[in-house]
Amino acid sequence: MVWERHGYRVDSSEFPFVSVQFPKEVVAAGYQKLFEHYVQLCKRGGGIGWLIDFQAFDPVLAPAAVRRAAAEVFAEHKATLLAATLCEARVAANPISRGVLTAFDWMTGPKWACKNFGDYAAAEAWVRTMLRTVGED
Fold first, then answer.
1. Whole-prediction pTM value?
2. Interior/surface letters 33-69, b for 16+ CB within 10 angstroms, e for the rest
């Protein structure tokens, strides 16, 4: 199933593998809707492996209001996400953007296995390996 709103594209057709593409520009209202969709996916079951593609969106350029809203929305849904998420890989075009994502992790506290990548194929391979490995345990 593919969900598209506010420029986001979420493909859950291979659930629990879920790929998400961020738009070039993010607004707080769209981010809220995205996380409401995440909650719906979490209700389907646990062990989700998220592949988040930030190649179009540069978190370095996000306005402070959007960064603040992102932290608030994440905090609002963190418990639901914690219960259902196995891992998350993020793809960001440059090292500075990956650093901003790491800083976001520090701000929002401990969670699931999370890794930042500069290459989409490597990120996808990591998520799929995590899903397979945990599925065998």
1. 0.89
2. bbbebbeebbeeeeebbbbbbbeebbbeebeeebbeb
Residue 82, token pair as written in the block: 């914690």
DSSP code, position 93 = S
| Predicted confidence (pLDDT) per residue in 18-72, tens digit | 999 999 988 888 989 999 999 999 999 999 999 999 998 877 777 888 878 888 9
Structure tokens at 127: 């998520």
Crossing angle of helices 95-108/64-84, nearest 10°? 60
| pLDDT > 90? residue 103 | no
Q: Are 12 and 1 in contact (CB under 8 A)?
A: yes
Contact yes or no for 52/91 (Cβ under 8 A): yes
